[in-house]
Amino acid sequence: MFWDVPGDWREVQISIDHHLSVYAGRSGVLVEAAGAIAGKIDSLESVLDNLCERTCPDCREPCCVRATVRYDFRDLVFLHFLWKGLPVGQPSAVAGKACSCLGDKGCVIPRMVRPFMCTWYLCPAQMALVRAAEAGSEAFLVGWLREIQECRKALERGFLQIVSPYGK
Ligand code: SF4
Ligand code: SF4
User: Fold this and answer.
1) Measured in angstroms, how far is the CA atom of residue 59 from the centroid of ligand 1?
2) Which of 17, 33, 99, 134 is 20 to 30 A from 88 in CA distance terms?
């Protein structure tokens, strides 16, 4: 996995920070784009919480115990543009153990700064509820998550473009 070693983690943050400070003059639109993504994630909080309340308490195989979750480059670009603080490192990667960010009452990281994979993933029990929803936020959830994913890809492309020697 990537950036599991603390030194590698620090290095990638410093590198992104450096590029953002050097190309700050070109990145205003991307700061706005990151803010828009944050707004979209925020707007899903209640529908995701509601799904969790209806499924997680009775879950026999919690995903945060089974899954190996990492921040990817797209997450880091988003978080650097968002300026809400950075995680101190990757969630722990020890196979067979619960995610190191899992606390007694669920994830200890605010949703906005979690790996997006954790927001994107809807388990089978939650997907069943979403598929059964005929109206309301749940019925549109998958589409909204896809939209956020596309915005994240665009943000990453924008970042790579401004730091590229061929970017404008
Ligand atoms: S999201 Fe699904 S798999 Fe994960 S803990 Fe909740 S019910 Fe279980
Ligand atoms: S970061 Fe949080 S939501 Fe994601 S797997 Fe770990 S505990 Fe679960």
Assistant:
1) 6
2) 33
Full domain range(s) for residue 38: 6-162
Confirm whether 18 is domain-assigned: yes
**Total-model pTM:** 0.92
Q: What is the pLDDT at residue 7?
A: 94
Q: Is 168 within the bounds of a domain?
A: no
Residue 14 lies in a domain: yes
- Separation of 49 CA from ligand 1 center, angstroms? 11
The ligand with the least distance to the CA atom of 60 is 1
The DSSP symbol for 90 reads P
d(CA 82, CA 31): 7
b/e per residue 71-106 (b: at least 16 CB within 10 A): bbebbbbbbbbbeeebbebbbeeeeeeebebbeeee
- Quick: pLDDT tens for 78-91: 999 998 888 999 99
